[in-house]
Amino acid sequence: MDLHPTVSIVGAGPAGFALAADLQSRGTSVLLYSHPTRRRHADHVESNGHLRASGILEGSTELRVTSDMAEIVAFSLVIILTVPSTGQETVLQELKKFDLRKYAIIAIPGNLFSLIADMEVGCVFETNLSPYSCRMEQGGLTVMGKKELIFIAALQRDLDPAVYETIESIFPTELKWCSSIIEVCLSNVNGVFHPLMMLMNAGRIESTAGDFLLYRDGLTPAVANAMVAIDRVRIAIGEAFGLSLKSSVDISNECYGQSFTDFVDLAQNSPPHNRLMAPSDIQNRNISEDVPDLLVPWCCLAEKLEIDASPIKAVIMLAEMTTGVNYMETGRNLQRLHLENVSREELIERFSPVLGKLVNSTLSTSRL
Ligand SMILES: NC(=O)c1ccc[n+]([C@@H]2O[C@H](COP(=O)([O-])OP(=O)(O)OC[C@H]3O[C@@H](n4cnc5c(N)ncnc54)[C@H](OP(=O)(O)O)[C@@H]3O)[C@@H](O)[C@H]2O)c1
């Protein structure tokens, strides 16, 4: 595969702009895509003439933004998606108009994007998280944190090792290659943190319009206990696939290079987390993305694997009762993931880490 040192970024929100500014400062040419009906950040940046960044990424960057997917496809063979997973199907409809058999698509975060992307693509990668913790207002980007490492896997398992190296050379953070997209999805710890923090603080969010610190004030010992219950199910799903997943706190520690002992310690003391204000409304992507596209697939996988998913199911039901949305139906259930007719054994075999380990060992050898 011929990959150029250019990158197209689909998704012009804080995560896309932070990635674009970071990559451009490292000498990579970037073109951003903003969906024509979702141009609020892009329009601000365009009218300012540049992106103003503050926090751990400082300065002013000129960035090109288009709403024409043909330009994105013509610009680079590497397309990084930074839309929320709830927006992936919208951009997929646009991408399907093109022949992408020579392209690499990287979904940040993936949330099992590979399994819903029913089109032929050269290679599809997924990450567990966005490299940046960031917010945007009036075209101004504030980057509160940058992960030292993010988890990634390819859907395809027979890729040329040079492709992995190209992806590594593009990314602004270290990459931890996982055995499968299932391992990556189970490592998106937002599914453990976000929905419970929102639901167990729903009254406070609505009565203060989010005027409190989401982690520092909202992740107290009782909330942490509930998170531990969700984390146990997540780890048990991993075990069924032969994976030894770390706790969510340890995954967060690994990504940020921190060493917090538990959820409350992290919430109190982690700089990228402990200054984050709560959203002003319960209808926020901490629920609308993380419940349907993380908790629903985790719950469905657990049930298929005959694991007790009741803690996750309870959170999904509470989110459904709170918002009136049937997330089990709208979310990434087995049918949407094209896994409904796959047996338990086939599921385990398809995402077994054995082959992944071979890929990783090939990779390390190729780097020597
Ligand atoms: N920002 C962070 O600190 C952070 C941290 C960890 C993970 N992430 C993850 O990274 C991803 C991107 O984050 P972000 O903060 O940049 O997200 P965002 O601002 O909510 O969305 C990114 C862009 O995608 C657009 N979009 C949303 N829904 C869409 C749809 N259905 N169709 C087409 N475009 C759509 C948004 O438009 P609108 O502005 O109109 O919504 C925005 O332009 C999310 O999955 C998020 O969970 C972000």
UniProtKB/TrEMBL annotation:
Where on the tree of life does the source sit, at the highest rank? Answer: Eukaryota
- Reaction equation(s) it catalyzes: sn-glycerol 3-phosphate + NAD(+) = dihydroxyacetone phosphate + NADH + H(+)
Question: Which residue ranges traverse the bilayer?
Answer: none
Which Gene3D superfamilies does the protein's record reference?
N-(1-d-carboxylethyl)-l-norvaline Dehydrogenase, domain 2, NAD(P)-binding Rossmann-like Domain
Domain Opine dehydrogenase, first and last residues per copy = 177-321
The Glycerol-3-phosphate dehydrogenase NAD-dependent N-terminal domain covers: 7-104
Question: Which InterPro entries would you find in this protein's record?
Answer: 6-PGluconate_DH-like_C_sf, 6PGD_dom2, G3P_DH_NAD-dep_N, NAD(P)-bd_dom_sf, Opine/Lysopine_DH, Opine_DH
Q: Signal peptide location in the record?
A: none
For biological process, the GO terms are: glycerol-3-phosphate catabolic process
Q: Which UniProt keywords apply?
A: Oxidoreductase
Q: Name one Pfam family in it.
A: Octopine_DH
**What's an example of a GO molecular-function annotation for this chain?**
NAD binding
Cited PANTHER family: BLR6086 PROTEIN, OPINE DEHYDROGENASE DOMAIN-CONTAINING PROTEIN
Q: What is this protein called?
A: 6-phosphogluconate dehydrogenase C-terminal domain-like protein
Recite the lineage of the species.
Eukaryota, Fungi, Dikarya, Ascomycota, Pezizomycotina
